[in-house]
UniProtKB/TrEMBL annotation:
Domain 4-O-methyl-glucuronoyl methylesterase-like stretches: 105-343
Keywords: Hydrolase, Serine esterase, Signal
Organism of derivation: Cyclobacterium lianum
Protein name listed in UniProt: 4-O-methyl-glucuronoyl methylesterase-like domain-containing protein
Alphabetical list of Pfam families matching this protein: GCE_fung
Keyword Hydrolase tagged: yes
GO molecular function: carboxylic ester hydrolase activity
Residues in the signal sequence: 1-21
Amino acid sequence: MYYKALLAISLLCLLSRPASSQEEFNYEESKVPAYALPDPFVSLNGKLIGSVQEWEHQRRHEILRLFEDHVYGQVPGSMDNMRFILASEDGEAMNGDAHLKEIDIEVSRNGQSVTVRLILFIPKEAPKPAPVFLLINHRDPENIDPTRKVKMGFWPAEAIVDRGYAAATFHVMDVSDDNNETFQEDILETLYPEQLEKKNGMRGLGAWAWGAMRAMDYFETDPMIDAGKAAVVGHSRGGKASLWTGAQDSRWAITISNNSGCGGAALSRRRFGETVRRINTNFPYWFTDNFNQYNGKEELLPLDQHMLIAAIAPRAVYVASASEDQWADPKGEYLSLFHGTRVHREIYQMDGGFSADLPHPESPVHLPYAGHHIRAGKHNLTPYDWEQYMDFASKLFGFSNE
């Protein structure tokens, strides 16, 4: 199945920004409460973490378990079978510039199966195997039209291919609808029904991350794709899922969060723009049930989002914001990146660092292990954002594709 028929996505968009409520939303730095961030370098038993071995064999696992239990839920990997079916192919796509493959990823467990459609454009002129960008798409399916009759800046597949990258995507409807009434109908009820009974069980965003991991499973089998040079990209709620994907799955070379805000890159303790209470109220199906206990009590969280970024180390991470997207808290996203990448610098001894001051719009900062930019404008994923991501990847992977 390619993906299910269009749902009323526009109704969800109405929920993604402030609604009338007794809760007041803060957009003033002077009103950000005093807060102290949990220290990524201190283990649960109070031990100071100072070596790569301690980080990789103890602290990183503790952090992932904290996020599983309190925010995103478990990500089960058990399955009985997985197979990749070439649903369609066009060796002359994009006017001969790309090789199009549409792959059905069929996963079976306990006699039930789910199919995720992966759309993949591989550049024909670039050296093989090709590095790849995977977009977790939660918007209208026409944003990722495989026929390319409809082209949108949200997924500029032609521009990606022109730079020498494979352009891949899947729609989240294939794994979990972005809808509180039907989110459980796909992999949750079909493959992992036991997760719905757990307070720390998988929910919507975890299911999307699961889908991205299955795409990586396919990349590892395709000789035309360099799975070791793969980036996962998500915007807004997709950016939250992208960060969780990169933290959970160490196969991704680059994890990219675009305007992901609360529950994504932004620090929860700042209570700036969207809050934990608001996101849990509007989207109760995104996060594990345990996350609700921190509504209005962010200071009680045993973690904050900088620790999610830390869990991605030593692999590369990129956080981007938009100047007019105060609901997503661009400063909070940047501070999370600043504090989270301490692990890259202090544990893995990587060169370069971010300034403590928020960069100006249109002033990208690309370090060997992390990137950041603020785009002028509103909440969106645009061709400008994609150009920055590809510039960053080109430097990281060490090849010229200008």
